[in-house]
Amino acid sequence: MTNSVAGLLPFLAYIVTVAVAVPITIVTLFLARRRLLEPMLTVTLGSVTVFVLLGIGTLAALISVDAGLQALQTAVLTGVAFVVLPLGLGTFLVRRILGGDRDRAMRLVVAGWPVALVLSVVVFIAPGGFRRYNITFLDPPLAYVAVAVWYGVVLLGPTVVGLLVHRVRGPPGGATA
Question: Per-domain residue ranges for the chain?
Answer without folding.
Answer: 5-172
